[in-house]
Amino acid sequence: MLKLILMRHAKSSLADKKDDDYDRPLSKRGKQAAPAMGRALAKHGIKPDLVLSSPARRTRDTLKLVLEAMEITPPVSYDDRLYSFGDGSTYLNLLSRQKAGELVMIMGHNPSIHNLALRLAETGDTRSLTRMKRKFPTAAAAVIALPFDNWSGLKDTTDANGILELFLTPKSVDG
Q: Rounded to two decimals, what is the model's pTM?
């Protein structure tokens, strides 16, 4: 069984209007949330073997803080196609091509992250599923177990039968 961590970048700053969307830095709140989420994931024993990430500044900065807090250095692949704001199909396509890693993390953007989580997580804790379906806030992370032996099992699937094992938000880890 494979596991997937879908994580949305932490809160970014809109203070500097001259920065285009791709280059937006994290806000103060985002800089606090990212390491808190990393510590929470590590506390639950969630440590990715591989990370696929959007190369946008806010995703790179979030990922750096998360991995530092987790005290791990997995291989990271930055892919321009993950700078995407759609239905999650691009993310699913890239994931289905992975050859390695039983626990993969995707660091990306909404609505792609949220849409992919909704598509893959069929069952799990009812309360967590309800919270995730309602909103996938900045820095949130969903851990989904998938009934496949390799990532290619996700290709062309419309029924992943994934199990939402964990849904964390900055508010849920702060108190």
A: 0.95
